[in-house]
Amino acid sequence: MLSIESNIQFIKGVGEKKARLFNSLGIFDVDSLIHFYPRKYEDWSDTKKIRLAQNGETVCIRATMITPVKEHQVRRGMTLYKCKFSDGSDIVHVTVFNNKYLAQSLRVYEEYVLFGKIEKNLTVSSMSSPKIERAQTGATIHPIYPSTGKLTSNAISKVIKTALDSMDDIPETICTSIREEYGLIPLDKAIRNIHFPKNKMDIEVSKKRLIFEELLILQLGLMKLRGNKKSKSVVRIETDYSDAFENLLPFKLTGAQKRAISECISDIKGNYTMNRLIQGDVGSGKTAVAASVIYTVIKNGFQAALMAPTEILADQHFKSICSLFSKCGLNIRLLTGSVTVKEKREIKSLLIDGKIDFLIGTHAILQNDVEFKNLGLVVTDEQHRFGVKQRADLVNKGTGVHTLVMSATPIPRTLGLIIYGDLDISVIDELPPSRQKVRTDIVNSGYNSRIYKFIRDAVGRNEQCYIVCPTVDENENDIKSAKQFVQELSNGPFKGYNLGLLHGKMKAKEKEAVMQSFSEGYIQILVATTVIEVGVDVPNATIMVIENAERFGLSQLHQLRGRIGRGNKKSFCILVSDSKSESSVKRLAVMKRSSNGFEIADEDLKARGPGDFFGERQHGLPQLKIADMVEDIETLHLTRDCAQKILKKDFTLDLPENRHLCEQITKMFRQIEY
Ligand code: ADP
Ligand code: MG
């Protein structure tokens, strides 16, 4: 007997080699196997008469084999097997390539079900390598799994069947009362039916149950991760220093910045910990808002920490914040992966002694041995790059600590609800008056020489330029890589100019050196991948050329474009794309039309769906197997209520009825550990 914990190698027919193939799909035990769902189904119950099928149509035909199989060796390694089938309406000529096993199993005058594409010309109907099964045994609905090269959908289906046949009932995760309340079938039935449905109804009700379960587990996990939201604050903030801070600034804060600051201050002066998200478009001045709150916290005698997603950003924050605070005599330190061991040791000891007021860094500041004396506020910048777990860990560094999250990704509200849970939100919907609207143009590569001249002219005026490419190395389908660009440009149109190269595969130190050199103005033209997407601030850069622009998401393009137009000079974003696809053209047009991040995000979500919206799983949420955060938004709301109910009764999920649910939460959230 198998249990859900059994290793897949215990399943009959799964040897070491096959197990490894399953492992590459993330399947290690029976549990992950039975939760590996079909991507779609082929409905073989809906058969069609050969005579009525259209040329090119994918059809299911029920027909009798009327000629024996003829073998044709075309050349070495290529054998064709041909035979004919009839369903009374017409005859179809079937060709099977190389599949000797199948060919030998076919019997004249037996009835079969054929599934595949049919080709018709004036006289003959034919099918090439259709799927063929005996009519009596053939199931009517066939699951299609996301297969890999070596592991076919059929093979996966067979193993799942063997596993399910040698198992007792799958342990139920959702207790009866909740199942009844929400109209959900038992897990055992849902799993068996999702893999081997007898009809469409089976699929529907199973899906409903499994989607509900998955979202419920997600909600429960997130709620547990966040713990009890409204925790009493131990950080006593008595005095508001935000006016004093504004006097330190070389500019006047915008109305929106002031509003955000006062919302934060009123949070931290209250009895509960602050949990606030500052959402503002690129360049809206979130750093100044955070700095103001940090200033107040430190002046009240507490330490503060700021975490950025990359070293470049941490470094940049460090520099700009040091200069903002230069007149206040605060002790501010930077802790990243590239700080020397000696300095790290020094920082740690100063930190625990309370001699550092403000620590800025990357996730290096999450390490266990980094301890604060009296941490009062944690700020994370560009939050969408951190996982929910990382944020929770940071908060746990201090007790009753306030958190402020800055995000430049305007995200549609529905997704925001899940990712940010019940954070309070301040929106900065106003740009500083000095900011220029960036002019955006879309051109094809035929414009290259004009673009290069445009860049040379700008560099001649001492301005700088970014050229962004989708890939680092030479690779797939003739997309030019960043490395190739640097090579070609520095020997061609930009001979004699200072070019730099920046990409994610470089060491942190190298990246830093390049960025430094660019912000000092030595590098005139920076060829880069999307590493520059987040936060980088070089006001003297006025041109951004984005090559193969169709390869980027709209939100990503918007983030990239936010790197220019940061000074007082007119700035230009040039999207280069040779793509003729209608959807690409439409998507890029949005960039020309709009500079509103929220509007762009909505378009992006519509065009690409939530899976792609964040790029490579940047949201830090576990990957979902069956539910879809946008399509299943109603269920998402239901499960939120349901999760609250469950936790209210049993916050630690210790009740026997919640045992299996609890195990599944652990499993889902194990994948997001960093
Ligand atoms: P983001 O919201 O993208 O993080 P930053 O905080 O980096 O934006 O601010 C972008 C630039 O605008 C910085 O150079 C900053 O000094 C400047 N800035 C911020 N607030 C104002 C303001 N109220 N007036 C003028 N410039 C400002
Ligand atoms: Mg920023």
Search tags:
seven-stranded parallel β-sheet, six-stranded parallel β-sheet, 22 strands, alpha/beta, 674 residues, binds adenosine-5'-diphosphate, single chain, binds magnesium ion, 22 helices, globular
Shape: globular
Q: What is the CA-atom radius of gyration, in angstroms?
A: 30 Å
As residue ranges, the low-confidence spans are 614-618
Structural class: alpha/beta
Strand content: 15-25%
In round numbers, the mean pLDDT is: 87
Task: Report the count of strand segments.
Answer: 22
- The helix fraction, in percent, is 25-40%
- What composes the largest sheet? 7 strands, parallel
Distance between the terminal alpha carbons, to the nearest Å?
A: 35 Å
**Spatial ordering of strands, largest sheet:** 12-13-11-14-15-10-16
Please, could you describe this protein's structure?
The chain has 674 residues and is of the alpha/beta class. The two termini are 35 Å apart. Mean pLDDT is 87; it is low at 614-618. It binds adenosine-5'-diphosphate and magnesium ion. Adenosine-5'-diphosphate (ADP) binds at residues 251-254, 257, 280, 282-288, 408, 432, 434, 537, 566. The site of adenosine-5'-diphosphate has 18 residues, from helix 10.
Describe, in short, the structure shown.
The chain is of the alpha/beta class and 674 residues long.
Topology, please?
Elements: H1 16-23, H2 30-34, E1 40-43, E2 58-65, E3 70-75, E4 78-86, E5 91-97, H3 100-105, E6 111-120, E7 125-128, E8 131-134, E9 141-144, H4 153-165, H5 176-182, H6 187-195, H7 200-226, H8 242-248, H9 255-268, E10 275-280, H10 286-299, E11 303-307, H11 311-324, E12 332-335, H12 341-352, E13 358-361, E14 375-381, H13 388-395, E15 402-407, H14 413-420, E16 424-428, E17 439-443, H15 448-460, E18 464-468, H16 482-491, E19 499-502, H17 508-519, E20 525-528, E21 541-546, H18 554-561, E22 572-576, H19 582-593, H20 597-613, H21 633-649, H22 659-670
Parallel strand pairs: 5-7, 10-15, 10-16, 11-13, 11-14, 12-13, 14-15, 17-22, 18-20, 18-21, 19-20, 21-22
Antiparallel strand pairs: 1-9, 2-4, 2-6, 3-4, 4-5, 6-7, 6-8
Helix pairs in contact: 6-7, 7-21, 7-22, 9-10, 19-20
